[in-house]
């Protein structure tokens, strides 16, 4: 599905389904709106967003810079509240971050005091997520580094990585958690065109391996939607 934004309104959706959510709907959004307060007036960021995400569905948000794509993603992730509407995940109201949703930001957001291996494993060690034994944890981290080709940089720190390498760490960190929904905010913006297509394929293949994952994001370039 492609959703195109024009300022604060969705001007193109395909397909649009206004029927009640089916049993396999992972994420459902109804009438979602967000405003920011600026001095003595409010700025409408997006309004009246309806959206359903089902297993293995990839949804791309298209639009000009500043039209609300990133704000929508951070709202879906529970990192900021909406002014109107509702978000439901697996049939339950979602109003705070949930470990079943993963988020990749425009910036890699790596922790500078942790090396590559430790940054990838960070999300796997949180109290809110499932628990893994040492063997399982090592296997997941090794698999993540293999996916993004960083096996030889496991002990490197963020200050020693290029922008593209840091973004690959961010991708591995998101994928090893195996979230049900993966939200991506220009996730491959620091990668060259050829590498970008390669890691887009990795993300799609990870969706196929997952029993039910869906993905929502916006690419930096429209061509990055062409996965070959």
Question: What does it look like?
Answer:
By secondary structure, this protein is α/β, with parallel strands linked by helices. It has one domain: Rossmann fold (3-Layer(aba) Sandwich). Helices cover 26% and strands 28% of the residues. The chain has five helices and ten strands. The chain has helices spanning 69-76, 116-121, 134-147, 163-176, 193-209; strands spanning 2-6, 9-14, 27-38, 41-53, 58-63, 84-89, 92-93, 101-104, 181-185, 214-218. The strands form two sheets. The chain has a six-stranded mixed beta sheet, with helices on both faces. A four-stranded antiparallel beta sheet has the order 4-3-6-7, covered by helices on one side. A hairpin with a 2-residue loop joins strand 1 (2-6) and strand 2 (9-14). The radius of gyration is 18 Å and the shape is globular. Mean pLDDT is 80; it is low at 7-21 and 220-228.
Looking at the structure, the CATH topology is Rossmann fold
Q: Percent of residues in beta strands?
A: 25-35%
Structural class, from secondary structure content?
alpha/beta
CATH architecture level-2 label: 3-Layer(aba) Sandwich
N- and C-termini, Cα separation = 17 Å
Strand order of the largest sheet: 2-1-5-10-9-8
Contiguous helical run count: 5
User: What is the helix/strand order?
Assistant: EEEEEHEEEHHHEHE
Give the overall shape, derived from the CA principal axes.
globular
The CATH class turns out to be Alpha Beta
Characterize the main sheet. 6 strands, mixed
In terms of quaternary structure, the protein is: single chain
CA gyration radius, whole angstroms: 18 Å
Q: CATH superfamily, called what?
A: P-loop containing nucleotide triphosphate hydrolases
Count of individual beta strands: 10
């Amino acid at each position: 599905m492609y959703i195109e934004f024009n300022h604060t309104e969705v001007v193109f959706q395909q397909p649009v389904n206004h029927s009640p959510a089916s049993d396999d709907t992972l994420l459902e959004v109804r009438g979602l709106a967000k405003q920011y307060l600026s001095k003595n007036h409010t700025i409408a960021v997006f309004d009246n967003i309806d959206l359903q995400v089902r297993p293995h569905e990839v949804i791309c948000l298209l639009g000009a810079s500043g039209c609300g794509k990133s704000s929508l993603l951070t709202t879906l992730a529970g990192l900021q509240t909406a002014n109107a509407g509702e978000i439901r995940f697996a049939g339950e109201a979602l109003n705070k971050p949930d470990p079943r949703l993963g988020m990749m930001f425009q910036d890699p957001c790596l922790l500078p005091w942790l090396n590559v291996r430790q940054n990838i494993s960070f999300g796997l060690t949180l109290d809110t997520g499932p628990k893994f034994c040492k063997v399982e944890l090592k296997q997941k981290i090794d698999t993540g580094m293999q996916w993004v080709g960083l096996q030889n940089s496991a002990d490197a720190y963020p200050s020693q990585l290029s922008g593209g390498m840091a973004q690959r760490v961010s991708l591995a960190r998101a994928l090893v958690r195996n979230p049900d929904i993966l939200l991506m905010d220009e996730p491959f913006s620091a990668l060259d065109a050829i590498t970008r297509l390669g890691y887009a394929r990795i993300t799609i293949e990870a969706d196929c391996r997952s029993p039910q994952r869906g993905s929502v994001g916006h690419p930096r370039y429209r061509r990055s939607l062409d996965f070959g």
